[in-house]
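Structure first, sequence second, as always.
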């Protein structure tokens, strides 16, 4: 079997780069894309390379950024343009492979293993993509080339902007092992602290600790981190052509969520969207995942089994809300929530064996499903915003306006 060749392409300072491509007057000046003061407290969403030299950070306030750089130019975000540019960039990727896995609006993995015989080596394909994105679209991209997804992403982060880094089976220990442990995929602040307490400052330290101790301390996450650090990741690039294995919905709120009622409304809104998609697909989810981003842009992600497997907002929201109650520090404001239905199974293949004590619960679930299916029909006829929960309509966190 041929060794895999994976690219990770990361558009540099994407929002700021798009704004500059649209407005050449931003070239040569420190510039930041900032959310509106009314809706996002005037925070920095992205900044160009010149602004970075002043120490301006994503998610800091405009007031703070202006103190560091009084002549900072502020640009308003244009999200439809970001989506348009993202599609153009991915269209260039598609010239070289149809195995493309987006990782956010500005990043994608590409499996170019089979493409090498047509377009040259992995680094040569990366160079063609880098040049075409720059010449045709007017923004730059950094690309990591490696034999797995984790190292390809480390490569795209290794040298910026407008650069290509090759991490091979021959050189990965020299490049990867000295990097800070926090640079490894899915190592958040809390995991970094846990690794630090075990003496792991670098990715190489993670390997040296060994899989047994990491698994004992961190469970399945420790097992995965060892695999990532040691270059043993074999996860495929999951192209959109493949059958959906999960359905997710996320939202960045107009204001930070600071109480449980806000969180409940947000989770119910997201779960309603997911459940409708599952019913349309004829699928049930057997796992629910909740991703939480705080006001400092720190992220945690946790999951729970969904018993019984579900395609109703009521059950999915209940599981997601339970995750939040057990896993989140209620003193921390929440900026974004993402609910994901995972481990999907075909609804028609599920045969539940319910005991006499579960009959009442199952009847309640069936009532919920009948009600939600009626809502599906109304929305199909009159639009997605034609019928909404009162709690969503009366909330000021932004989800009701999102449906307009």
């Amino acid at each position: 079997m041929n060794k895999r060749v994976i690219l990770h392409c990361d558009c540099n300072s994407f929002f700021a780069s798009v704004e500059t491509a649209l407005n050449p007057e931003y070239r040569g000046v420190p510039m930041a894309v900032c959310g509106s003061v009314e809706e996002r407290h005037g925070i920095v969403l992205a900044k160009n390379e010149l602004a970075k030299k002043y120490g301006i950070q994503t998610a800091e306030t405009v007031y703070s950024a202006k103190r560091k750089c009084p002549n900072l130019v502020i640009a308003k975000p244009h999200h439809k343009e970001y989506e348009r540019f993202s599609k153009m960039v991915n269209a260039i990727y598609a010239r070289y492979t149809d195995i493309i896995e987006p990782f956010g609006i500005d990043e994608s993995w590409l499996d170019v293993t089979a493409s090498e015989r047509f377009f040259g080596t992995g680094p040569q394909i990366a160079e063609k993509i880098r040049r075409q994105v720059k010449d045709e679209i007017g923004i730059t991209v950094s690309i990591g080339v490696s034999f797995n997804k984790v190292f390809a992403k480390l490569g795209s982060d290794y040298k910026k902007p407008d650069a290509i880094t090759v991490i091979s089976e021959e050189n990965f220990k020299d490049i990867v092992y000295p990097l800070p442990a926090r640079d490894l995929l899915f190592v958040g602040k809390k995991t970094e602290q846990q690794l630090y307490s075990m003496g792991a400052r670098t990715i190489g330290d993670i390997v040296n600790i060994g899989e047994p101790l990491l698994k004992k301390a961190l469970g399945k996450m420790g097992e995965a981190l060892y695999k990532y650090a040691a270059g043993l990741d074999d996860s495929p690039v999951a192209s959109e052509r493949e059958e959906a294995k999960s359905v997710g919905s996320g939202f960045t709120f107009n204001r930070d969520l600071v109480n449980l009622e806000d969180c409940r409304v947000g989770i119910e809104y997201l779960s309603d969207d997911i459940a409708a998609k599952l019913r349309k697909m004829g699928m049930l989810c057997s796992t629910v995942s909740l991703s939480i981003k705080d006001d400092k842009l720190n992220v945690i992600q946790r999951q729970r089994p969904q018993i019984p497997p579900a395609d109703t907002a009521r059950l999915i929201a209940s599981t997601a809300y339970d995750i939040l109650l057990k896993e989140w520090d209620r003193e921390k404001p929440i900026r974004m929530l993402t609910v994901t239905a995972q481990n999907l199974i075909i609804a028609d293949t599920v045969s539940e064996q319910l005991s006499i004590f579960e009959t009442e619960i199952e009847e309640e679930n069936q009532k919920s499903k009948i009600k939600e299916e009626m809502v599906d029909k109304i929305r199909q006829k009159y639009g997605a915003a034609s019928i909404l929960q009162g709690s969503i309509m009366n909330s000021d966190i932004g989800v009701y306006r999102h449906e307009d």
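Margin note: The CA atoms of residues 184 and 203 lie 7 Å apart.
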